Amino acid sequence: MTLLDQPTVSLSATAHHERMLAEHSAHNYAPLPVVLSSGEGAWVTDVEGRRYLDFLAGYSALNFGHGNPVLRAAAHAQLDRMTLTSRAFGNDQLGPFCTELAALLGKDMVLPMNTGAEAVESGLKVARKWGYEVKGVPADRARVVVAAGAFHGRTISIVSFSTDPEARGGFGPFTPGFDVVPYGDAEALRAAITPDTVAVLLEPVQGEAGVIVPPDGYLRAVREICSETGVLWISDEVQSGFGRTGYVLATRGLGGVQADVYLLGKALGGGVVPVSAVVANADVLGVLKPGQHGSTFGGNPLACAVGRAVIGILRDDVVLAHARALGEVLQARLRAMPGLTAVRGVGLWAGIDVDPALGTGRELGERLARAGVLTKDTHGPTLRLSPPLVVEEPDLHLALDALEGVLSRA
């Protein structure tokens, strides 16, 4: 049986759940008409019993698949022991988690948080404080250079420097202190840095913008510019990190360079619990003192136990090597596929632009869902593909066959 051979089923259960969402959930998302109830690996099942290949993977939060047995076992074991202490006390998972994550990334210290947006906000706070106390920027004058088209979250400060009208509209007044430059333009970045600049915040690959891969040499140029001007390079690896590009960090895999500060989230919690972190050396994170920043749930023992299991998976190159190998298959097939006007990507991550004559990205996403493959559009004609890194090659081809079929029938 192929994905297209599945029987048509009643949508009564789906309609029931959609009605509850429409009546009682804030309408800040426009989901596809699919209501999921279970998942394993790269496969998910909806409330009607219909199976799909998940080619979104929770925006990379599910890099290691649904119900990963290693992560599930770690969560179950910790659930039976303790889930929360708050940071008013220590717990026996926090120290090992910070030590192991710092070692994995080659840094000194870890600031554990919960969500990706919290990691970004925390990184910005740390950069400003570092700018005042270490670099010597006058009080309240710190500035951060950011890239157009970036997506770092949806808090007020983050949308303050977004160039997406949907993200900004109706949410002002905005937080000052940010300078926006074109992504991929090293000279524009250099020109934007002033004596008051404390940091450059970039996604090494812009995910929400449509999987925009940096030009050759750009990340190395960013490293050189930040070193020459004495500012911190903050690399937002919330989506691109932990294997999505086939490497632990996209910054190192694509540019062969190291940022000063790494922001992590999504896959760090394995799709089990929200876990995020700011990772840097002691001369940066050491500016924080007790009472200056915190989180009730940040560093809780359940999150740390799951995060430690994720780190254990990443210490072994098997998953990363698999992602690199299948990433080549994905990119090659997409580049040969008719009906696409552009293909961008690296590893098991791609942004594809659909010929407008065949429909919008949303319309293609809906057709793909009916064909048994789940993904998500972004910005008009663009679809994002980001299957779990554990997807098997036959399933990868099954999904790409479905995409090819949908494009040919559009």
Give an overview in words:
38% of the residues lie in helices and 16% in strands. The strands form three sheets. Strands 4-10-9-8-7-5-6 form a seven-stranded mixed sheet, sandwiched between helices. The chain has a four-stranded mixed sheet with strand order 1-2-3-13. It has a four-stranded antiparallel sheet with strand order 11-12-15-14, covered by helices on one side. It has helices at residues 12-24, 69-79, 94-105, 116-135, 156-160, 165-168, 186-192, 218-229, 250-255, 282-285, 301-315, 318-335, 361-370, 393-409; strands spanning 36-40, 43-46, 51-54, 109-113, 143-147, 178-181, 197-202, 232-236, 261-264, 276-280, 340-345, 350-354, 373-374, 376-378, 382-385. It is an alpha/beta fold and 410 residues long. The chain is globular and about 60 Å long.
Summary, kept brief:
The protein is an alpha/beta fold. It has 14 helices and 15 strands.
Key phrases:
seven-stranded mixed β-sheet; about 400 residues; alpha/beta; four-stranded mixed β-sheet; globular; 15 strands
Instruction: Give the N-to-C terminal Cα separation.
Output: 22 Å
What class do helices, strands and sheet pairing give?
A: alpha/beta
Distinct helical segment count: 14
**What fraction of residues sit in β-strands?**
15-25%
Mean pLDDT: 96
- The low-confidence runs, each spanning 5 or more residues with pLDDT under 50, are none
Strand order of the largest sheet: 4-10-9-8-7-5-6
Residue share in helices? Answer: 25-40%
Helix and strand element order: HEEEHHEHEHHEHEHEHEEHHHEEHEEEH
Total number of β-strand segments?
Answer: 15
Which outline best applies?
Answer: globular
Radius of gyration: 21 Å
The biggest beta sheet, please? 7 strands, mixed
